Amino acid sequence: MVCIAVAAAAGLQGCYHDGQVTRGADTIPLCVDRVLQSGTFRNAPSSRRLLKYLADHSLAGDSEQLKEYTIGVDAFGKAPDYDPRLDSTVRIQIGRLRQKLAEYYRDEGKDDAFLVDLPKGRFTLTCEARASAELPLAVHEEPAEAALALPPLPSPNRWRVAALGLAGISLLLVLLVLYNSVRPRSAVGGAPGMTDFASPDLAELWKPFLNPARPLLVAVGNPMFLQFENKALYRDLSVEKPEDLLKSPRFSAVSKALGSQESRPVHYYAAVGDVSAAFVLGQRLGPHQPRMSVVRSSQLQWQQLADANVLFLGPPRFFGDKLASLPVALEITEGTDGFQVVHPLPGEAAFFKFRDPSGFFAEDGEACVLITHAPGPVGNTDVMTFASNSTFGRMGAIDGFTDVAFARMLVGKMRATSGHIPQYFQVLLKVKYKGGVPTETSYLLHRELRRRN
Question: What pTM value is reported for the model?
Fold first, then answer.
């Protein structure tokens, strides 16, 4: 296997680029650049950043000295007190980069003569010739070790393929029927209409996020759990930072009861309502926004907020720090048990409980959902959050916000004398749900947000 740093220094490895074989130190940048400019990586800013970072260090010859901590601080902007034992960002992004490279070479790069790879256990990129690649020029150096490849699968029985295809179609139809049977109904009456962004009201609500020139990220809240050696999981609903959880007396009691086993923070899970809401967003916005992708809220970086439009789904505390740092003065904020209106109007309530009943196990009840549309950190992107302590509330709010009839009602209430809705705003909704299924979504109030000077 030829290491990038060695190949560049020795001038041995070649790269097939635009019909020519390139040799020497220019080889690797061309191969990496080819990958970075691909559609596979274009909408994956974290993988792009990591690949460029590792390529630069591999070419410089110091990649063997890289540590997980160094990558976290330098490539992903982690604070100096970042602890890789408590924060798995780098490990997750390394795994995602390998997946993206495999995806690229299965599709767009299937005809590339050389493969860029990141072997497990190392931070040094490699560049290998495909075993079957025929280069226009003879290569006289020692042959590199062939890349590992799965043997071609035998031709499957066509009846089996037909049966699997029929089963897949049947499953899809069943899922669609089930989804349509539990779709919530909005307070304006009737089943939600088809999402038609030719509707002027929907277009006005969603216009910034349907701009195909800018990527759209759907950040799904993924709470932190502590996983023990015996696979037991512990979750404290009031804590999201590993260092705070490790100091918790309740965690100490649980750890002691389990024999003080080793534990580590994991972000593997998402609430069922957020998964459903992300599906609805993909279904309804996807045909109008080709550059749409899903990320975990725990992995979202400030640079992504500056480069892409973002939709947040989750409890307020999951992204409250980022929201408070955006260049607008918020008019509705998160309190201890609910949403606080900073400047209530005469006769208007100043406080709205997160949910009623407040018990975490109630699947029947109602919840408030705060939708905040604000500019990104440098003002050239848009951020919209759907914040609620109820996963069912967030699901109902997404359905209402993408429904023609509900949008018509909402825009009518928000429309100013100018004839337009505010560029940035906060909207407070109430969602009723039964058996975990949203049944009614209604408007409570809204506020215009103004940019800070």
Answer: 0.57
